[in-house]
Amino acid sequence: MYLINARLRAPEIEGRPAPPAGRIPARELRRLLLVLAEPAEGIEHIYGEDHPAGIRLGLFIRRHTLDEAESAAARLCLRALDGVPELAGWSLVACGTDLDLALGRLEAFDEEACQRPAIAAR
User: Fold this and answer.
1) Distance between CA 94 and CA 111 in Å, rounded?
2) Each residue of 50-59: pLDDT tens digit?
3) Angle at the Cα of 87 from the Cα atoms of 83 and 10, rounded to 5 degrees
């Protein structure tokens, strides 16, 4: 199973993202994506959170490879953008894993900071 992150950007009004009050909430988008998902895509769970510029999603996808999971997530998001009227003007700005970011953060710590403390013997 893979966790694929996707970011959807809300339409802009005069160069600024549309106010959250007038946009589809993340919980509703999550529900719509689950309805639109095809069984072959392997979507197991979707997490969504509202963000000032749009919505951030975490899609848990059961596929054989990372490429397959990323492709399934992108197809689902693009299908929603094309077919859901509440997403008119929205765009998919990122879809994939954040492996580079995660690895960069790990490298920023020294080796000891990443190790678990030893459990005391009873």
Assistant:
1) 31
2) 988 899 999 9
3) 150
CA separation for the pair 14, 57 (Å, rounded) = 26
Interval 24-47: pLDDT, tens: 999 999 999 999 999 999 999 999
Residue matched to tokens 């951030």: 56
Torsion angles phi and psi, residue 37, rounded to 5? -65, 135
Question: 109 pLDDT exceeds 70?
Answer: no
DSSP 74-109: HHHHHHHHHH-GGGTT-EEEEEE--HHHHHHHHHHS
Residues facing residue 54 across a β-bridge? 9, 51
- Take residue 73 and report the two structure tokens written for it: 């997530």
How is residue 82 written in tokens?
């094309």
Which distant-in-sequence residues (6+ apart) come within 8 Å of 8 by Cβ?
A: 29, 54, 55, 56, 57, 77, 81, 87, 90, 91, 92, 93
Give the residue-averaged pLDDT of 114-119.
43
The model carries a pTM of 0.76
